[in-house]
Write a structure and sequence with these properties.
single chain, mainly alpha, Methane Monooxygenase Hydroxylase, Chain G, domain 1, elongated
Length: 213
Amino acid sequence: MLSLKKLLGKDDKFFDLLEAGALEAKRSAELFASALRKIASGAAAGVSLDEFIQSRRKEKRIREQMTEALAKTFVTPLEREDIEELSFALYRIPKQVEKIAERLSIYPGRIPHAAFERQAELMLQAADAVVFMVSQLRGGTNVERIREANDRLQFAEGEADKVMLQLMKELYQSPSDPRELVVLHDLYQMVEQAVDRCRNAGNVVVQIVLKHS
């Protein structure tokens, strides 16, 4: 039987799950940066998918726990639709990063790790901002702190766009094999889209905060 405390949503399980989801999203960005460092050092012949898959599966389990908690709780600390939207937005980050790792793992050519380094750095910055923004929901809705973090997130996303365009320009101007051009073009876009996923999660947090401010 559910306790009255759980029924009325007075415990912190929703904030715990949202924060765990944000941390797992950041973990996927860290895995991507780590994979690039290994490739650069020659320590790995390719990209291992195991850790990326585990990260995405962990995020999926968190999302499933969130769905179950929503079904069992009568009153929630935030609107149900907002909790569900943010949970889904966080899930999409490691899912996108796993797709990148999958593509890199089957790429037959030399992986241009240097080209991805700035994108990986911006992805980490964006994910870090998301973790901070989600953590702020537990203690209330401090609009100023959220805006400052969102500014950092929007900056990272804007820079990621610029980096992607520059990489594509260099790719188009280089004597690349047509197949390599297509694959790298897709990869550059996919990494930028991972930063977009972080921005989308941040946008949901901003909407929640403004709604409750």
